[in-house]
Amino acid sequence: MSDTLLAIGTRKGLFLARSTGGGPFDVEPIQFSTVGVHSVAIDTRGASPRLLAGIEYGHFGPSVMYSDDLGKTWKEAERPPIAFPEKTEATLTRVWQLAPSPSEPGVVWAGVEPGALFRSEDGGVTYDLVEGLWEHPHRPQWQPGGGGLCLHTIVPHPTDPRTIGVAISTGGFYRSFDGGLSWEAANHNIRAPFLPEGAQYPEFGQCVHKVAMHPSRPERLYLQHHFGVYRSDDFGGAWHDIGAGLPSDFGFPVAVHPSRPDTVFVLPLTADVDRTPVGHRYRVFRSDDAGATWQPFASGLPEGPVHAAVLRDAMTASEAGVFFGTRDGEVHGSRDGGETWSPVVRHLPDVLTVRAAVL
């Protein structure tokens, strides 16, 4: 009988929740108490799963911890796992994303603040700066978004290790076809309405909130932007607005169904007024035709009024189901593609990231 593991990173600690055979989740005691956990990954590529957690020690700074016994014990590399070379004159502020490579055993990517990509070849224990992106001529012109100058999304190709995409707030979406040696901005058709008329489709500088890909159709990407929801059918070569039919095209997360590449989920928020769920009620919108049409689903979710947002990394879709966590410490899950929802846990600290896997 299969187990589902849910890893929930919060402003004050990590929570692991387990479910057996589709039953209710049992939430284990808090780990890294009072420590911010901004990124988590469940690496199931090996004989046994490895958990990774990007934590923030406060005045001790950020680090990456790993566990090979499902969170019973944690380890940290003897040297700082992620550190900028001295020549960069940069200091690590936060680890925003941890992404095991689906095509290279032992490789784990890390996205950090200030906007940079790191690569590990020892399963996520230690990392080296990807200098091709750091030295890109656009980088000095990237500006921090509301959350900082963060590389928050990593989209590795499922079978081709040479192809990888990243999203930087507010640099935009960048892609590499040579394993990270060189990079190009890939933001064609993404509108930046805060710019003057006639300059609203820049090469870079877009405020991308999240990007998602389905492994069976890697050329197709979905993007939640500050000012729209987009789809690309050529790995970012061009983007098409698919926000029509949504009550708001502002939001943070976007997730793709694990077995249906045309099925995508978003959770619209009221733009820049108060950034709360539209109508002060959680409604997950699902498209089954790659964004041509949208349907809302809210059965089992709180009827409201609710005032807590869902952050960019706090929604996930996997074989285990669809899950999202809120800024007031609730996590909700659906095992039927978003049709119905049930609470997983309440009264946690501010939820920053959620990941799920079937073990």
Q: Topology, pairings included?
A:
Blueprint: E1 3-10, E2 13-20, E3 26-27, E4 36-43, E5 50-56, E6 62-67, E7 94-100, E8 108-113, E9 116-120, E10 128-129, H1 131-134, E11 150-156, E12 164-169, E13 172-176, E14 184-185, E15 208-214, E16 217-225, E17 228-232, E18 240-241, E19 254-256, E20 264-266, H2 271-274, E21 284-287, E22 295-297, E23 315-318, E24 321-325, E25 331-334, E26 342-345, E27 351-358
Protein name: Exo-alpha-sialidase
InterPro entries: BNR_rpt, WD40/YVTN_repeat-like_dom_sf, Xyloglucanase_GH74
Which properties best describe this structure?
2% helix, 359 residues, four-stranded antiparallel β-sheet, mainly beta, globular, 39% strand, 2 helices
Can you describe this structure?
It is a single chain. The protein is mostly beta strands and 359 residues long. Helices cover 2% and strands 39% of the residues. It is built from 2 helices and 27 strands. The chain has helices at residues 131-134, 271-274, and strands at 3-10, 13-20, 26-27, 36-43, 50-56, 62-67, 94-100, 108-113, 116-120, 128-129, 150-156, 164-169, 172-176, 184-185, 208-214, 217-225, 228-232, 240-241, 254-256, 264-266, 284-287, 295-297, 315-318, 321-325, 331-334, 342-345, 351-358. The strands form 7 sheets. It has a 4-stranded antiparallel beta sheet, with no helix packed on it. The chain has a 4-stranded antiparallel beta sheet with strand order 7-8-9-10. Strand 13 and strand 14 form a beta hairpin. The radius of gyration is 19 Å and the shape is globular. The mean pLDDT is 96. This is Exo-alpha-sialidase. It comes from Nonomuraea angiospora.
